[in-house]
Each structure stands twice: as C-alpha cells, then as structure tokens.
Design brief:
Two copies of one chain form a homodimer. With about 500 residues, chain A is of the alpha/beta class. In chain A, about 45% of the residues lie in helices and about 15% in strands. Chain A has 17 helices and 20 strands.
Amino acid sequence: MSKKSIYEQLKHLFDPENIAVIGASNNKMKWGYIVPANILAGGYNGGLYPVNPHDEVILERKVYRSVKEVPAEIDLAVVTVPAPAVKGVIQECVEKGVKTCIVISGGFSETGEEGTKLEREVTEILRKNEMRLVGPNTMGVYSASCSLHALMPPVRPVAGKIGFAAQSGNLGTQMLSLGKALGVGFSRFVCIGNEADLKCADYIECFAEDPATEVILLYIEGIKDARHFIEVVSRTTPKKPVVVMKAGKTDAGAKAARSHSAALAADEAIFNGVLKQTGMIEADTTEEMLDIAKAFAATPLPKGNRVGVLTWGGGWGVVTADALAKHGLELVELPEDTLKRLDEILPPYWSRGNPVDLVGTLDLSKHFACLEIIANCPVVDAVITLGTMGATSSFQSFVLEGPAAEELSQIKPRVITSEFLQQLMATDEAYRNEVMRLMSETDKPIIAVSFPTSGAITPMLARQSEVVIYPSPERGAKTLAALYEYRRFLDRQKVGV
Amino acid sequence: MSKKSIYEQLKHLFDPENIAVIGASNNKMKWGYIVPANILAGGYNGGLYPVNPHDEVILERKVYRSVKEVPAEIDLAVVTVPAPAVKGVIQECVEKGVKTCIVISGGFSETGEEGTKLEREVTEILRKNEMRLVGPNTMGVYSASCSLHALMPPVRPVAGKIGFAAQSGNLGTQMLSLGKALGVGFSRFVCIGNEADLKCADYIECFAEDPATEVILLYIEGIKDARHFIEVVSRTTPKKPVVVMKAGKTDAGAKAARSHSAALAADEAIFNGVLKQTGMIEADTTEEMLDIAKAFAATPLPKGNRVGVLTWGGGWGVVTADALAKHGLELVELPEDTLKRLDEILPPYWSRGNPVDLVGTLDLSKHFACLEIIANCPVVDAVITLGTMGATSSFQSFVLEGPAAEELSQIKPRVITSEFLQQLMATDEAYRNEVMRLMSETDKPIIAVSFPTSGAITPMLARQSEVVIYPSPERGAKTLAALYEYRRFLDRQKVGV
C-alpha cells in the first residue's frame, strides 16, 4: 500500500501533467478517437500522447508504439484497447511508472466468470506498483481544475464545487449535462466502473480532502466493501455533505443492478441504517440528486426548521404549505412586528400571515422589501420565494421566443412594449443579486421556485451555482428538508450525541 | 333552475359568438385593457364589445356606455369593474339577457364578511335569470374551439384534449404555459374563483359531456358542496379520466387555503375516501398534474401491470426497476421466444433480461426492432423506453445550441460531423412515428423517458399531445401506475364490483 493519501495519489488522475491514450485511433467511431478528441476539445493543456502500434499521427500528434516509448512521465493513461489486450498494456504502464489509469474498455467482471478472472489478473499487476486504476468498464473522468474531459460522451460540464462519483456512466454523464443546462457546477466526476482497484469509498476519501470539492454526490447501486465505505463516509460527513442516490433497493432493482454492474445491492433496511449511521443525505429520485447537491453548493444551511414563504399567488402558497408540513418543516407564524413592517408595503387586504402573499404585486421594490423583512425575521430559519425570482425571465422568454412572440408583434395595439421587456430583463439580475446579498447577510438559505413556463431555460435559470431555483414548490421544500437534515446531523456531531 | 344541461349552458361561455367587456379601459396597466387585448391577440373571431361610461374607442372598437346598449346578443360578459360596481353591472347583464359572465374582479368572499355579503347579493341577482357566473376573483377562461383567451396573463395554450378547472389562477395559468412549452394541449380551462355561482362540480359535469374534452384535470383546494361533487365525479369517471391535485391536505396547507380561496379544505383521510369512491386519479405533486394528464390524453391504457423496459444504459434501467416496484408495477420476465428474437438483434453479451439493455447500441434500426419485439410480447402490457426517444434531439441541441457548440466547431479534427447532426435530426421524428405506430397497432402505452441534457426543450419534446416523454424514470413509472389505476377502476365498473 502506498503511504500517500488517496487524495495525493489521485492528484495524478484529476490534475495530470501528461496523459497517454493507449489504444488511440484515427477511426472516429472508436473510443480511442472520441475520448482523446474530447480531451482536446475540452481545453486540456497538458501533454497528450497517443499510443498504438500501427499509426504515425493521431489528432495531429505523434503516435508511440508503446507507452514505454513516450518521452515524458505519464500521470494518467487512458486505456481503450479491447479487454484481452488490457493486461499487457497495464503491465507496460506499471513498467513505465505511470501513476494512474482509466480503463474505458468493457469485457471484464460485468460479463461473467471469464471477465472476472481477467479483471483479477489486471488488478494483480497493479499491486506490483503504486499505480491506481479507474474502472474497467468506465465512461471516464472529468476534472474542472485542469479542464480534463476524459469522457466517452462529449459532455462539457460547468466547473463548480460538486465532486460526483457514479456507478453508472450514462446516468452520471447525463447528470453532468443536466448540470450544464442549469449552471450547476462540478469539481470532479468519476464513473466508478467495475471497481477492480479504486472503490467508491476511495473517491469519497479523495473528495473529502480535495479543497476544490465542497459537496459530494454519489450514485450507488451496490457497495463492495461496506465496512470500509461506512468508515470513510462517517469520517467525511462532519466535514462535507454527502448526497447519495441508492438504486437497486427493491428486489427488481437489485436484480437489474446485478446484471448491470455485477455489484451486490444492499437491502433497503440495511442501507437506511447506513444512512442514519453515517449522516449521508439521501436523494430519493434521480431529479433530487441535482436538486439537493446544488443547494448544498450554493446556500447556507438553515439553523432550524422554521420557514418563511413569499408568494406571488395564493395557490402556490397552499401547495408549499403542504410540502413543508410533509417534510417536517414549519410554516412559522410571523411575529406582529414583522407583520407590521409588511403592512407598510402590501395592500391593506393582504392576508397578514405566512405565506406572505404579494397578491400579484408587480412592483419589484416591494418584492425585495418583503423578501428582506422575511429573511431578517428572527423566527425565520429559511426562506422560500415562489414565482418571483426567475419568473420574469421565464415570462420574458415566453414573450420573446415563444410561438406567441410573432402573434404579439403583429397585433395592434401591442400588449407588450419594449420598455416592459427591458424591465423584465433587468429584473432577474436584480433578483439574483438581492438573493445573494440577503443569503450572505443573514446566513439563511433562500430557495426560489419558478415555474418552467417556457421551453428555454433562461440565462438566469442557467446559473444555479450561485442561487438555486426549483421547478415546483414540492422540490424546493424537499431540498430545504435535506439541508435541515444535514444541519441536525452536524449539530448532533458537535454535542457528541 | 335551467332545464338546459350545464354543458349547453356553458356553450355560451366556451363558444361565445359575442363578448362584452364591462369595465374596458385604455389604461394598459388595467385588466380592462389586458384581458380584451389578450382575447384579440389570441385570435378570437367573434364580436367584442367594450363597455364603459367614459371612453369612445378602446382597442380600435366603439365603446358602449352600458351592456344594454350593445347592438348584439351577448353570450359572455367579461367583468373587470371594481367589486362595489359589480352588482349594478350584473343587474344590467341580466336585463340584457346575457347568457354567461366572468367576473375577474376581486374583493368578494375572499376578503372577509363584507365581501361575502356582496358576493351573495350578486348571486341573488343571477337567480332571476338563467345567466351563469364564473368567479368572482377569477383569472378567466380559455377555450380552444374558438381560440378564446379571456385570461389575465398572456398565456397562449396549445389546443388539445384536456379540460382543466383550477381553484388557483396563478397555478392554473402557469400549468397552461408549461403545457405550451411541452406541447401538451387543452380543450378548456377555467379558473374557478370564488364559486359564487358555478362550482367545480359544474365544470366537471360540463367537461364530461363536452366532446372536445377527453381528460379532465382539477386543481382543488376545497370543495363547497361535497355530496354534489362526489355524485358528479362518480358519473364522470366511467366515461373520462379525472386527474386531481388536492392542495390543503395538511393543517398548514388548509390554513393557507382558507386565507387564499376561503374554501373549506377537506381532511386528507376524507379526501382519500372520496378518491377511492369516485375513481379519480390523484396527482401527488404539481408536476404530476401534467405528467399524468398528458399521458391520459396521448396513450392507450395498459391492460395489466406487466412492464417491458428498453434502456440505452444500465443505470437508468436499475432506477426504473426500483420505480416500477415502488408503484406496484411488474418488471415482467420475458418469455424465451422473446429473448431469442432479441438475441438476433443485440450483441452476444446482452443480459437477456428485462430491462432490455441496448448496451449503448447506436444503430436506430436495432432500437426500433427491440421496441417492436417488446411491445408485441404477449406478457407485456406497457413499455417504458429510456434514453432513446428524445435523447438524440437533446443531444443535438446540446451540440448545436449549447455553449459547447462553438468550441466544437473550432477544434480540429471535428468530433461531430454534419452528417451526424442530420442523422440526429431525422432520428427523433422517426422515433416518434415508430412509437405512434406501435401504440396504435398494439393498443399498449409506450412511455418515453429522456433526460433533459439541454437547456432547450427540443421540437420533439415540445409535441407531447401525441407521444409522452418524462425527464426521469421515476416520473414515467408513476404516470404508468396512474394509467393502470384508472384501468383497474374501469374494469371494476364493468364487472359491477
């Protein structure tokens, strides 16, 4: 075993100075072409050395017959040769002194007995050296710090604070894509693959120490060394939140997981015990993975469960009240002096309660004033604002880009004036700044809910590394409950319970 | 009481030949301007008569001092005058013989005792005639058949088969907007308002008889005459599915509902009893409202709970297996002859099970062949297809429109060729046609799940009146469970249980 920490070992993986691609190809339908092309297109600035015994030039770079001939120290080898050839390649990597490798190739333990034997043989070779291996049967790795896109699909994630390890390449890379559309950023991503060498727990241990990672996100189907996993997670959660989606919890799901990743799925009851013991935060659905992770990355934690709600319309307030109650959050009664301050802003017939109903008020300064009063109210631990932030840009894009835009521009007199549009464009930016200022000043989370009334995700919605917006009150409330759950875990840790 | 059916009475509301706008205005910030402007912009072709005592011309139309002076029979009066003036206006409408009216104005029972008294007085006037009243305190009405947009917000819904009654204007009209973005169509929409005259049950009764409406969608906070409501719904559900979102089920939610709509919220247990008794299908969240309604409008009902799953990647298959199990659906074991037919298409190492994993196969003809085999398998009642239909257009838009597009076009050699892009564009249309053909031939629902990897909803995704696509397997599975629940209800009705 190496004496270096996992984090130090995986620096070679996430911040390589030189990469060799073994099995590089000029055939554009082959991963040996697509993966290095993704690396170059993604803006990686280190050395990239194609290796294959036949070609002279690939991707405008000199090709080497063996990794051992490459005239540089190699931090990372990306291996795309067919499974039977992997053993020899890894042997050469070890002899060359390569630090880490990603074995993209499938055909190992996921295919049956013979593949399992092959995988074991490959892992045996590693032990002779300090080389660490990602996969095999992996879609690869992303790292923001050096803009490394060693990935099969051409995903270009947003750089951010979330470290993400996934036991499914499709699911993982599609989360990165969704994150891109929403502006949710990642520091690192690794498709775990078959875990021949590096296990899920190793990536968690690395992310825990990694200064670039503030939130850890996991998609797990099964855990290979449960005791070690629990130990590592338990050490991590007091420092950084770990959000986990566990698939294969039902019999049907576990069966599907076995055929997919050959991982042993944990029983639901056992896994619930693990959650409780370790303080991991569970995402119940794939949508909740990003919902929750992005909030951990962007907002403060609530100090309690008392929520103030600002709403533009009554119905959404009712739905939010239900959602909060469902998740153990309190729609707190606002004290009289807070109501009095709101009286000065809202029309006389406002309901004088929580949710604070803006009763359709269009005046943005009134929105801001109400938001500030609620956020500063001492009995409020967190704020949900409904149909306000982001709503105007949705509306704008509906008007500007929707099929109605043409009709609207033809009718006389025009319903929508250009001043109105300009006003809308400025509104979202102002809202965003106001929410960021209030979160910073009050140290309370402000969760926005905006209804996706347009096909396009607007620029506002697509920058959720700084503020978070949910497409429904139910998802906003569930997320807030997750933040609060982690907060309570931290509080228990502090008092040593 | 009128001897005409509610449907016949509300023909004047949903298909008016002449509309009067009472309280019409030239002030663009007033509803008296915005609502008739929306009506005109929406393409309504009937007569529109502004009424107000001061102006000569509004929206390029002659203004009348009173509705009684309008030289035409009025089917629908849209009333935007302040609450205290409504009584006089309604009196004049009754004298004129107006058939229906929408009272946009607020300031009635939702504001307290005095407003309640005023509302009762207005309703008393109606009784002298056959005039029916929507609201007061309503955002208005949409009707596809005559392109009527008598609405406060400038929403331009897609025409379709869903009749929608909502006890919240904001929530209701934002659902219409979301429907527009997704291509989910509505036949009628009504914001129920205070239910001074027409109640939720009346709209259901109307939609039940309305040939343009095939699916009924409700957003309810409280029910005013529960016995009548139950009776009407019970008569309706054997003919048309009724999808309902019930807000105000928790104490906090009920309290918020009281302050919002003055409606008496039903206890959760009672409402669950109503659901069971009436065969309504519940949407648990606001997102599920459209999720479920659009499926009822686009796909056949499953005859049983046995599901075949086609997936492009393993991880999503595992998540789907879990979601199906959670909702009582069976990931059915495929018979040997079906597996053999799939053997002919898939690579030798495929998992020979359900989910049928395409193992990343790019060849579209293989997707179609697998989909056809699964859909035609006699033990399969419904199909979920993951990451296939819609995925290519998401990918395309990621490449064409995403921030990566520019980078990709600059790198050499190009990863993405233009032939590849053209291929992608054709793919979604082919997929759509194939799914429609298979649903028609097999009479089984095919539910697609495609992951929103791009900010833009693609043209493919934006036409969900014909095929349905969900952003997660969990939402697809939940929807399928709702379709099956309704199917079982119908089956019980048939055998008289």
